[in-house]
Amino acid sequence: MKKLKNEAQLVKKALQVGESYAQKRGYAAFSADTSANQKVESLYRLLVLDKLVVALPPDKEDLPGMKHKLAIWIDRTLPADHPLKLAS
């Protein structure tokens, strides 16, 4: 798994966009005490369910892998002129 140059910022953006996507799909918003790791796992599973992200193999399904998949997803989703894409 090759780490993206600005993966931490991409994951942060993926959480913002992913939460909005989940709400549009009818899911309740995350509560204030929901940890970032729980958000990552929830959004990853939703995106896999909607076939927007290819699932990790079950034996390699861990938090760093899920974050990486979210970073790749948002990197492909953002417009070409977005500052996060220009930084990579």
From TrEMBL:
Matches recorded under Gene3D superfamilies: Uncharacterised protein PF16691, DUF5062 (1.20.120.1930)
UniProt-listed Pfam families: DUF5062
Top-rank lineage group of the source organism: Bacteria
The protein's name in its UniProt record: DUF5062 domain-containing protein
Source organism (scientific name): Marinomonas fungiae
